[in-house]
Amino acid sequence: MLIAYPIYILRLLLVTLANILKKGLRPPEYVTFTLHGTFPDLKMPPEGLLQKRMAPRVKSLQELDSEFRVVAANHHIKGIILHLGKPELTLAQIQSLACSIREVQAKGKEVISWASGYDMSPYCLAALCDRIVLQEGGVIHSLGLTGRQPYMKNALEWCGIELDVVQVSPYKSALERFVRSSMSDQVREMYEWLFDSYYSQFIDTVTEGRNLSKERVHKLVEQTPLYGEKALETGAVDGITNAEDLPAYLGCAEKPARMAAWDECKKCFPRPLPPGPGSYIALLRVQGNIVDGKSRRPPARPPIPAPFLFDEQTGDLTFIHQARLVLRDKRAKAVLLYIDSGGGSAAASEAITSILNKIAAQKPLVAMMGTIAGSGGYYVATPAPYIVAQPATLTGSIGVIAAKVVNSRLMEKLLINRETTRRGQKELFNSPEEPFTEEERIKALDFIFHIYELFIKRVAESRDKQPESVKDIGGGKVWTGEQALSNGLVDELGGLETALAKLREKANLPGNTPLVDIPLPRRETAPLPTSAALLEHALNNMAQLGEGKALLAGPLYFFQPFKK
C-alpha cells in the first residue's frame, strides 16, 4: 500500500501532462462508432500476454459507454454516428445502450444511426437515435418477432440415445427439446408471455424514439420490408444516403460535416484521470454455466453459434477464492455481483450463495443481471438485498431438474459390448445402461424436490415473501425483467449505472469510486486458443447435462430472439 500512492501520483502527473498537450487538438464535428458483432456487457477481465496477442479483444458496452461520455463532454462536437453493421445484441443489451445514448442526448448532442439495412435488433437500437439514415438501395427488413426451437427426441432415438429427465414441473423445461418431439403446452404458454413482453418492449421503444403512436408503429411493422420512398413516407427512416455522401447530408454540399471514427480521433480527447489507490467497489462475476470446481473461459470464439457448449464456466471453488479476497480487503467497501448465467450445478450454486451471504452480512451487496439470470443464475442473486435487471432480462426459472444419458442402444448399433464389474447397489444417476427404474425415479424426485424446497426458502427469505407465493411464480417459470419486477423478483429496472448508484448510496461512497474487477487466478485464465482446448471446453459444458446431478438450469439456453 505504501508504494501504491507514489505510483498513483506518477500516473496522475503523466495523464495530466498528456491532457494539457491535447488541448490544442481539434476534434471532428461527428464521431463515428461502428457496431458489429458481439459486445459483452462489462469490460473483459484481465488476461495474460499470450491470450491478448492470440485472441482479439472484444469491446464491451461498458467501454462504449465511457467513450460516449468522453465525446459528449466535448463542446466542439455536434454528435455521434452509430454505423450499424451486424450488431449481435440482445434486447437487454440494447436497453443498456439506450441509457448511454440518452446521456449523450442530454448533453445536447445529436445521435444518428446509419446502416445499409435494418432488421429487428439494429432497428430497435436505431429507434433510440435522433435520426435514422438508410443507405441508398437499403431495406428495413421484416420487424416481426420469431423464435424457433429444435426438438430432437426423434433424432436422438434414431442415433440410439435417450435422455432420461426428472423435473419439478412441466415449466422446468431446460432439457425438453431433448426428450420431446414437440413443444409442451406449458412451455408454449411460457413462450407466449415472454414474446408478449419482448414485443411490447420493442413497440414501446419505437413509439417513444420515433415519436409515433402505437397504432402507427404496429402498422409500420406490418408494412415491412420497406425501402426507398416507402421507408421515408411511413416514418421508418429520416433520410437515405450512401456512406460517402453522409458528410454532405449532415452539413451541406459546400461545407460537408467533418467526421472521423473514434479510433482515429480518440487522441484528441483527454484521458480520464486514474482512480486512486483507496476505497473501491469490487466486481464479482457469475457468467456462463455454473459448475463444480474451477472457472474456465472459452479459449477462442467458437466456429459455430452454440451458446451453451462454448459458454464461460463459473466454478464454485474459483468464485469462493475471489469472494474471500474481497472479504479480507478493507478497501473493498461494497460489492457488485454481475450475473449473466442460465444456471448449472445446484451444489455449486449453493456454495456460491453461501459465500455471498457472508459478504452481504459485512458489506453492501447489489446484484446486477445481464441478458439472463435464470435458475442457478437467480439462486446466486438471493443474498443480494437489492437486485437490478433490464426490462428484457430473462430471469426466474425457480426449479430443479436432473437427467442422465442412456446410450445402450447406441453401443449396440456400434457393435460395442460393455462388461461391467460392480460392488454394492447400482448407482442411482450415473449408469448409462438403462433409464431410471420406478424406484430410482421416486428417489430422484424426492431428492430434487428437497433442492427445490431449499430454492423456495432462499427466494422467500431474500424477497420477504411467503413460500407459497414464491411457488406461484416458481415451478421453472421464466420471466422477463419487466415481469419479474411485477412479481417482486427484482427491485429496479436498469443497468450498470443504476446498480452502481445504489451501491454508492448504500456504502456512502463518492461518485468517482472505481469499480475493480476481481481477477481469476492466473492458472485459471483462458488457455491458448487451439482446437483441442476449444473442444475440451465444449465437452466440459456438455458433460454436466447427463451426469444425473441436480441442476438449476434455465430452459432457454438458446433463446434470444433479438440476437442474430
How would you explain this protein's 3D organization?
With 564 residues, this protein is α/β, with parallel strands linked by helices. The chain is 40% helix and 20% strand. The protein has 21 helices and 19 strands. The protein has helices at 4-21, 49-54, 61-72, 91-106, 120-126, 153-159, 176-179, 185-210, 214-223, 228-233, 246-250, 262-265, 316-328, 346-362, 376-379, 408-413, 438-463, 467-473, 481-486, 496-507, 531-543; strands at residues 30-38, 79-88, 110-118, 131-140, 162-167, 226-227, 239-240, 259-261, 280-291, 313-315, 332-345, 365-374, 386-389, 394-396, 401-406, 478-480, 492-493, 515-517, 551-553. Strands 9, 10, 11, 12, 13, 14, 16, 17, 18 and 19 form a 10-stranded mixed sheet that branches. Strands 1, 2, 3, 4, 6, 7 and 8 form a 7-stranded mixed sheet that branches. Helix 4 links the parallel strand 2 (79-88) and strand 3. The chain is globular. The model has no long low-confidence stretch (mean pLDDT 86).
Number of domains: 2
CATH first level of the largest domain: which class?
Alpha Beta
Total E-strand runs: 19
Q: What do we call the CATH homologous superfamily of the largest domain?
A: 2-enoyl-CoA Hydratase, Chain A, domain 1
Instruction: Categorize the overall geometry.
Output: globular
Count of helical segments? Answer: 21
Work out the radius of gyration.
25 Å
Which helices and strands, and how do they pair?
Layout: H1 4-21, E1 30-38, H2 49-54, H3 61-72, E2 79-88, H4 91-106, E3 110-118, H5 120-126, E4 131-140, H6 153-159, E5 162-167, H7 176-179, H8 185-210, H9 214-223, E6 226-227, H10 228-233, E7 239-240, H11 246-250, E8 259-261, H12 262-265, E9 280-291, E10 313-315, H13 316-328, E11 332-345, H14 346-362, E12 365-374, H15 376-379, E13 386-389, E14 394-396, E15 401-406, H16 408-413, H17 438-463, H18 467-473, E16 478-480, H19 481-486, E17 492-493, H20 496-507, E18 515-517, H21 531-543, E19 551-553
